[in-house]
Design goal:
Length: 162
Amino acid sequence: MKDVSNIMSIVDEAFESFKDHRPLDSTLISLLQDVQNKIGFLPEPALQRVAKHLNVSESRILSVATFYHQFRLEPKGKHVITICQGTACHVGASSEIYDSLMRHLKIDTHEDTSPDGVFTVQQVRCIGACSLAPIIKIDNDIYGKASYKKIPSILARYRRRE
Ligand code: FES
């Protein structure tokens, strides 16, 4: 993770490119998007700095950051697992695969990242390769015709790289 002074610089730089924009709400969302794109999530020091720049309370910034699903307050894991829940994948039991992933990675309900910070699991609607359903994607690797039975061996490949 970036250190606090680095985070401040990133927010300051982002603010410079949005400071003349109005109204405040659209500026705030664009600013948060820009900061998140650069850091990968929105750490607390970044939210504090945004609040200072916009001269609004930190609780206001936090309420916006938690309202929109696009914003993350925690970092993503080193590997991002995307599981398709579109119709073709759902028919192919993608829910079982998702449950298996969450169980193997010990990710709690309402969380998306393993406790060791190695994996983040996200669900999407159709990756666009329905003929290979059900599909999971890990970083840029696609696993078609996936099954919950294959999950341990697939995860082991990435664990060996750690
Ligand atoms: S529904 Fe999963 S790839 Fe299309």
